[in-house]
User: Which sequence fits this backbone?
């Protein structure tokens, strides 16, 4: 991604009941005041900077278990 741009990382999880979906960054925190997760569980990162580079993890959890997917961001 280009520094200063907006990045969208998608995460699709389905089930009945619907799983609880959370995003986190490995080895750090999500950018304070510059991220948002919408109703489709897409993570929006605004005005990305080199410090935002890294691996982001989407975790879906329900009574049946947990599933996770990762996305690597380069700025």
Assistant:
């Amino acid at each position: 991604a280009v520094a200063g741009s907006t990045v969208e990382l998608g995460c699709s999880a389905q089930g009945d009941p619907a799983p609880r979906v959370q995003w986190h960054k490995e080895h750090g925190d999500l950018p304070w005041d510059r991220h948002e997760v919408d109703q489709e569980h897409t993570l929006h990162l605004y005005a990305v900077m080199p410090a935002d580079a890294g691996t982001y993890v989407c975790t879906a959890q329900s009574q049946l278990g947990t599933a996770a997917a990762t996305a690597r961001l380069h700025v």
Q: What stands out?
A: The two ends are 5 Å apart (CA to CA). DSSP finds no helices and six strands in the chain.
